[in-house]
User: What shape does this take?
Amino acid sequence: MTPGRLAALALLAALAAAPFVPMAGMRQYVLHVTIQIFIWSFIGGAWSLMGRFGLVSLGHGAFLGLGAYAATLLWNFYGLTPWVGGLVAVALTVGFALVVAYPCSRFRILGHYFALVTLAVGEVVRLLIIAERDWTGGSLGLTLRPARTDASLLAIQYADKRVFYYASLVVWLLGLWVWTLLDRSMARAAMEAIGEDETAAASVGIHVTRFKLGITALSAALTALGGVLYAQYFTYVNPDTLAGIGVSLRIVFAVVLGGMYSLLGPTVGTALTIALSEYLRVIFGVKFIGMAETIYGLLLVLFIIFLPSGIYGSARGLLRRRRTLEASATA
Amino acid sequence: MLTVEGLTKRFGGFIALGGVSFEVREGEILGLIGPNGSGKTTAFNCISGALTPTAGTITFRGEDITRLTPDAVCHRGIARTFQIPRPFRKLPILENVAVAAHYGAARPTTEAEARQHAREVLTLVGLPTDPHASPALLGAGGLKKLELARALATHPRLLLADESLGGLDLAEMASAADMLRRVRGELGVTIVWVEHIMATLMRVVDRVVVLDHGEKIAEGKPLEVAEDPKVVEAYLGEKIVLA
Assistant: This one.
């Protein structure tokens, strides 16, 4: 067994045991922060499936919001269990993603233009949610209708945070698994080829549109799933926290910070941004509103300039280089 | 094998190709020559599906492929190289070729088969098969080879080679010409070779089609074409040396 694998197993064991470690009254808070890290890391990972191939979307909030709202509305109005409602929400989001992605691919909307189109799409979804206030609750948001009991498997509502802790852990692992599967497949090479040069990729038989739609559908599906999970955990959805520019950029920022080309980059970035925002919240309280965002923005600029592969990506690169150097020195 | 009839491509008011017709016979090496801007690369782009012709038809092995997308054309058995090599720089050399072998073949292959085939093709053209070797290590000649390897990995019956040996030294030009001969000989691939420096090409090809300003001005054996006054004029009196 390699040291890396051992470390991964140890980390998993620690994560699995964490909810039962005595934390002197801090447990609820720690669990709450960790659950958020899992959910947002999963969403960041879903984003990076597109981002790493040059499909930089600034509108993933659209997928997130659609997923969260669709599942919530289906439960609130029709009493449809989120197990089914979540699936419907994911399917709906994938359909929506394809409607956006097809013309983008067909008319070769790439790079900055793609980013702008997605930015607009994210905003459109946010504004739609606000405009349809009769059933979405508008900008006040929407509370998930409570189940009759404290713990309901059917409604996926639990007062005990530990349930959501494990659920989000599993979903986070699912995201890592999907990432790894894709990373090891030839499809990754095809996507890299498309990201670099569509004409050359098509000339060797790669169906450019099919691949782009495929990766967009996958990314949107996982993002929507993250949205459903978010809604179930917080039991409250709001257009500003789940759709639009703000949340879309937050996802991108976390991933860029951690590193969008590596498996754990999005997780590291998300953990850092959430830790940072919690820290700033404690430090500044309500005194300097917007301070956290300012520090975020500053960091983002610094990172894009000095560490384009992110904290995790750069650290891993450094480690690898050192290891190859050592290997060549001993050889 | 490939029949091009009345191929026309207009870009706005500019006529890049004004109704060009020619035929490629199975097993030959056909030279497609002409001065800069004569429409050679445009013809390639139309045949390979990268551009949709304004008018005309392209038939390959009895099938009309005029409006097929590039990936579909590739699956029919037509591969192309680009004048300026366009490697996938983020992928290792082996993966550059393996991805072409995997997705370019008409029938589905496993990833292991694709990598194996990629190694064979890389060996044929004389590039390293080491899974970590990056295209960044290659010079102009090496990138040309990679371009060729990637095209050959798709199991083509017809290779559209946009060679333009301009960037290469004499030894590299000779070996590139030699390589195309081997591709035809060992793999049985029919070749259309685009080039505007004629000397190297004329020694290798069986027949020549000459384009000038989007029109075909001559066609025939290299020796006949080289003496054709229209061809001599198109090349502004440039002497065509046949060694």
About this structure: Chain A has a mean pLDDT of 90. The longest strand of chain A covers residues 142-143.
